[in-house]
Design brief:
The protein is mostly beta strands and about 70 residues long. The protein has no helices and 5 strands. The strands form 2 sheets. It has a 3-stranded antiparallel beta sheet with strand order 1-2-5, with no helix packed on it. Strands 3-4 form a two-stranded antiparallel ribbon.
């Protein structure tokens, strides 16, 4: 999908071969061939809720280790 760029601060959409489709990159309402890699940064919410004092992401912990028959200890 991406071609070779001369700059480390820019990414380039490569030219598709015959009978090949390459997705379009749209920035500010225009189809662009060169764009910044920051385009792919995704913000992920993290942390624990303010109301939960005993917050634990691991609710089920009695599962077999590496799919073995003995229970986890």
């Amino acid at each position: 999908m991406f071609g070779d760029s001369d700059s480390r601060k820019k990414m380039i959409v490569r030219t598709p071969d015959e009978n090949e489709m390459v997705p379009s990159i749209i920035t500010k309402g225009k189809n662009v061939k060169e764009f910044e890699p920051d385009f792919f940064i995704v913000s992920v919410a993290h942390g624990q809720p303010a109301h939960g004092n005993d917050y634990n992401i691991l609710k089920l912990y009695e599962f077999p280790i590496a799919n073995r028959d003995s229970p986890a200890t």
